[in-house]
Design a protein that fits this description.
19 helices, globular, seven-stranded antiparallel β-sheet, alpha+beta, twelve-stranded antiparallel β-sheet
Length: 829
């Protein structure tokens, strides 16, 4: 393969950093830059994962020559697709994976007929829907995979090989290449079709012939010529799109034996020749403000795509997936990625994916329009994350490799709904089994309260449940609905609370088409069903969304000022996550018209007759039951948990079987087949055109009926304030005070000079204070704490404390922190 010259130290991050003996602190705080670079090179010599990098690969880390011939790199990519040579077909799991590949090919090949004039496949004939082009190429790649995998019924079949070649010829002659004008969605032409065609080409390489290979590579280059350019307007691609495009160009370069293009791919990941704003590996914190693009990962683990959409579980996972494949392809060669910002990938996994996985499910609040695709339910998105992290392990030796190993083992073990080893591809299966065989123990259940202020989301993990909160603001869009997908997404960020319990299939098995989208759990809405949301999305006119988290605990305050899209509804909403109890507070709920509702719960029932207890009495379990529930002090839903109302309220309850099709929420990928699922919905009716309405309840996920009843008599958390100035609660066991200040105000011993989120936790002779500016606009936050005898022990940079009257005055510099939490510790005299 022709090798391009390495960039000078003036043009690349890696050469300059190699001369710098300094260190970069990663998530473990001890990793040097030299370790990161050595880890990247080690990918090329990863003897521990022979099916990720096949036997015979040159071992750069051991001092052998770099791998820089096209055949070796093709073999690497072939191995990623097939598992490589030497599969033990007598092993039951390997045999099952091989059988899956064969069945998938049988399904994909059905109806393929290169003699047709309207389409290669009878159901993919459109010349206006570009996904028909991508899907056709994906089917060809699926069939080619089985043809290349020993043990499948299709392996080495000459008739099938000829059919595949004829299929590729048909697509090049009739749909894809320089002679064809693109239509519909650019993604299909530049990324989706190109990726699949590249894969099929690698698998069939030796049977293609030089002329056909040249036509294929020219067709791909016609749409995707360079990783630094995208579309006819020459817009620079960012985020996941940049990695997808880089992957297309890299594999095409290998097929053409072109080292110059591989160099461009390597440099495109770091944006060596650009402004720096489009670097995939760098955190987007600074460049987003400077360049006006919000796309990419942030240091708090947030990932945004399409400017302001939270998308860790969609585009973010695809970025991680394709980046891990690219690193495998280029490692140990003249084009190894050695940018020191590669170290940031550690944080993506630890901060951007781990807190957003709940026993094999990725929290729907960060999956964008993918929740409306039937192919993405059933924990499929988490599988992509696991496969990517498995590929990353060899490149981060030492402590990070052990931590990633522990994560992978935990993720695989805790998902008893979908067996990863029974669904993953062959290469990932073999690598995963090696990880599982490692002596490193599984991490154990995640117990953490994690907030993502750069995308207005929060996650709360306890041993028996996880809970996700979805907000939006002037900085973040409420939902994505494009390409005729996610058509009922109106309220996904209006305070939606998704509860993940041991019912691991709750948000699978047709939840999103069948749930009442006008009554999503946790939301405050105007009752009724708006028109389909195609093409709609909006930021809020409100800035307040976020909270504060006490480090090392599962204690957090979170909230949002709701200014609803499409109506005059306004309200203030808080969630105080205090270990196993979440205090839900609302105030100032006002609208000019319409009936306002706050949804306590909307649960797809594992058991259609799951018991609902109202103040200890069983409500009817028949489908179609509905009732007004007066004087409610506590509720318990079997298999879900309890709800306590310290001040009795009136609620509405409804059991119903809901029937819908996926096509109702997705015209692009949905089917017309109707599905029916049972639901129980509970909500508080605030009346028509309410003014200043509110609510307060304690949610106790996974709690027993007996525990819920006990808490109704002696609530573990008490309300302190629920005005339009401040929401505050106090935990009875230790006196912890949690408050969200919407304006300047007072909550017992705590005062704030303006918007702030605050936690005050007394522990013996110490008091810990955590605070933030959820508006992300204030230069400082000033608190007053009316407790005598307090002195400062330690504080984060920018935080100070001084005596004031009968207490202490705390001043925190919040400028440029983007809602991050600051902490200080005080001591009682």
């Amino acid at each position: 393969m022709r090798r391009s010259p390495r960039p000078s130290t003036a043009d690349t991050f890696c050469e300059g950093s190699a001369m710098n003996p300094g260190t970069t602190r990663g998530t473990n705080g001890t990793t040097t830059r030299r370790t990161v670079l050595a880890g990247a090179a080690a990918l090329g010599a990863a003897a521990a994962l022979p099916l990720v990098l096949p036997a015979g690969t040159a071992r750069a880390a051991a001092g052998d020559p770099a791998v820089d011939d096209a055949a070796s790199l093709r073999t690497r990519w072939h191995t990623l697709l097939t598992g490589g040579p030497g599969l033990d077909l007598t092993d039951p799991q390997i045999a099952a994976a091989v059988a899956r590949a064969g069945r998938a090919a049988t399904t994909s090949a059905k109806g393929m007929d290169p003699s047709r004039t309207d389409g290669l496949f009878p159901d993919l004939t459109s010349t206006t829907l570009s996904n028909h082009v991508t899907t056709s190429f994906k089917r060809l790649a699926t069939v080619a995979t089985a043809w290349a995998v020993p043990g499948t019924p299709q392996y080495g079949d000459t008739a099938l090989r000829d059919l595949l070649l004829a299929g590729i010829d048909w697509m090049l002659a009739n749909r894809y290449g320089p002679d064809h004008t693109r239509f519909d969605n650019d993604w299909d032409w530049e990324i989706g079709s190109a990726l699949a065609l590249n894969d099929a080409t690698v698998l069939l390489h030796d049977a293609l012939g030089a002329e056909r290979l040249a036509r294929i590579t020219a067709a791909v280059r016609h749409y995707t010529p360079d990783p630094n350019l995208w579309r006819a307007d020459r817009q620079i691609a960012t985020g996941a799109n940049r990695v997808w495009i880089s992957t297309v160009v890299a594999v095409n370069a290998v097929l053409r034996d072109n080292g110059d293009d591989l160099a461009r791919v390597r440099d495109a990941l770091s944006d060596v020749e650009g402004s720096g704003a489009n670097s995939v590996l760098a955190h987007n914190d600074a460049s987003a403000a400077a360049e006006g693009t919000g796309e990419g990962f942030y240091s708090d683990g947030s990932f945004l795509q399409h400017y302001k959409h939270p998308y860790n579980g969609g585009y973010g996972k695809e970025l991680l997936n394709n980046l891990s494949r690219l690193l495998n392809l280029l490692a140990g060669t003249a084009w190894t990625v050695t940018d020191p910002d590669l170290d940031n990938v550690r944080g993506w996994v630890d901060e951007g994916f781990d807190p957003l996985l709940a026993r094999g499910d990725v929290m729907a609040s960060v999956c964008g329009r993918e929740i409306a695709r039937p192919s993405k339910q059933g924990h499929v998105s988490a599988q992509t994350v696991i496969e990517a992290v498995i590929r990353l392990i060899p490149g981060f030796p030492g402590e990070t490799a052990d931590r990633f190993t522990a994560l992978v083992k935990q993720w695989i073990a805790e998902d008893t709904y979908r067996d990863f080893l029974a669904v993953t591809d062959l290469a990932s299966l073999v690598a995963a089994r090696q990880v599982i065989a490692s002596p490193v123990p599984a991490r154990g259940p995640l117990v953490v309260h994690k907030q993502h202020p750069r995308m207005d989301k929060a996650a709360h993990h306890r041993p028996t449940f996880a809970l996700g909160i979805s907000a939006y603001s002037s900085r973040i869009y409420n939902y994505e609905s494009i390409q005729n997908e996610n058509l009922h997404a109106w309220h996904l960020s209006d305070g939606m609370v998704l509860l993940y319990t041991d019912d691991l299939g709750h948000y699978s098995e047709d939840y999103w088409p069948t749930v009442d989208p006008a009554r999503l759990p946790g939301t405050t809405v105007i009752a009724g069903r708006p028109d389909d949301a195609a093409g709609q999305r909006s930021t809020s006119t409100a800035d307040w969304a976020g909270g504060a988290a006490l480090p090392g605990t599962t204690l957090g305050a979170y909230g949002m000022e709701l200014r609803a899209f499409g109506s005059s509804l306004h309200g203030l909403k808080s969630w105080f996550c205090l270990d196993d109890v979440i205090a839900c507070v609302g105030s100032g709920i006002t609208a000019d018209a319409g009936t306002a509702e706050t949804v306590v719960e909307n649960r797809k029932l594992r058991d259609p007759r799951a018991a609902l207890l109202v103040n200890g009495e069983a409500a009817p379990a028949d489908t179609g039951w509905s009732a007004r529930l007066d004087d409610v002090r506590w509720l318990h839903v079997a298999g879900t948990g309890g709800y306590v109302f310290p001040e009795p309220v009136t609620l509405r309850g409804l059991r119903e079987d809901r029937t819908a099709s996926w096509r109702e929420i997705n015209l692009k990928y949905g089917t017309d087949t109707s599905v029916t699922r049972p639901y129980l919905t509970l909500w508080q009716d605030h009346g028509t055109a309410p003014s200043g309405a509110g609510y307060f309840w304690l949610q106790a996920p996974a709690a027993s009926a007996e525990r819920t009843k006990q808490w109704s008599s002696a609530p573990p958390v008490e309300p302190v304030a629920d005005s339009t100035a401040v929401h505050a609660v106090r935990r009875c066991a230790d006196g912890l005070l949690a408050a969200n200040f919407w304006t300047a105000g007072t909550a017992q011993e705590l005062t704030a000079d303006g918007p702030a989120s605050v936690l005050v936790r007394p522990e013996g002779k110490t008091v810990t204070v955590s605070l933030s500016d959820p508006t992300q606009l204030r230069s400082s936050v000033v608190l007053g704490l009316a407790l005598r005898g307090l002195t400062l022990v330690r504080a984060d940079p920018g935080v100070s404390a001084a005596p004031a009257g009968s207490g202490i005055r705390i001043t925190a510099d919040t400028a440029g922190l983007h809602g991050a939490t600051l902490n200080l510790t005080l001591k009682r005299s």
